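Re: the 116-residue chain
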Amino acid sequence: MKNFTLALLLTLSVAGTSMAKDRPGAKGNTTILSQQFFNSLKLTEMQFIRIKNLEKVREMELREAEAVVASDDLALYVADIDIRFEDSLLKLLRVDQKAAYLEFKMATQKQEAVMQ
């Protein structure tokens, strides 16, 4: 059951990521992790609140970048925003949660590479 849930989350994440690649700042398509994956990490209430705030800041920065930055440079700005988001996210997670997140991220990247 655990493997099935992880496979389902991976599939959903890859689908969301591929949609987000078409339009880096597309509203609603750019959340890094699905709600289900957050639930599987067993976050504390404080972690959940802080991560939601990080996501709001990320979305705001993406909207600002789309409005201000030329389309040629947008990918660089989006990558920078994503890196800062991930760094902040990793600071909030416990060691076991970090390991699960990084495993999930690597599996997602491998799946994306296969799809291309």
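The chain is about 80% helix and 0% strand.
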